Amino acid sequence: xxxxxxxxxxxxxxxxxxxxxxxxxxxxxxxxxxxxxxxxxxxxxxxxxxxxxxxxxxxxxxxxxxxxxxxxxxxxxxxxxxxxxxxxxxxxxxxxxxxxxxxxxxxxxxxxxxxxxxxxxxxxxxxxxxxxxxxxxxxxxxxxxxxxxxxxxxxxxxxxxxxxxxxxxxxxxxxxxxxxxxxxxxxxxxxxxxxxxxxxxxxxxxxxxxxxxxxxxxxxxxxxxxxxxxxxxxxxxxxxxxxxxxxxxxxxxxxxxxxxxxxxxxxxxxxx
Length: 272
Hints:
single chain; mainly alpha; 2 domains; 9 helices; transmembrane; Permease_MalE; transmembrane helix; phospholipid transporter activity; Phospholipid/cholesterol/gamma-HCH transport system permease protein
């Protein structure tokens, strides 16, 4: 009997990996993410439809985020206007300030800031809520009671974030423009009608479409990341904290990546 093959450190005693241990874990995680997303697109079309839960999540995600979104958007409009005025004043072009505010906020700042705030507030809440339900076995209890937990918990939340983030983005953009207008009116005495004429004259239909598409993608990303981290959490209360934290970090990272990719695509379309 050959005892060498059972000794620690020999090739037969070590676990075999396709590549390396770390790479195998990455590929397994990517496969799990793919299956989770595929299951969402499958479940979203199948009855029963949890309309009450979707409406409740829209209220929690959208309406309850309005105070924070309003304050942040208003401050961003004022701060951006104040920071941009000296640069334009050096060239005697302060009259272009409304157009600059419009392009910056509608194209980039509005969708990005709204998504980052929602990732911090909504993403962490979804991750912590589903994580606590997983570690306390409430999700398992729903499966035993013939309730589809994936449809009730995941589909409703992802749909709610996908629907509400674009609405919050529009609201943030409007509030930011109002903040910019108050600052411009205080310094240049520009009327409201002239300000918004210059605002809408500086943007195109492509800018509005791009902002809306980005908001939908950001909303889906926030909901999906929060649900995935929370739904698959483990290790008790420690896992709940990790799910909430990783939901925010991962969602923000993906939002910046998506912003970069979408910006490149839009700039390519705009070049034609």
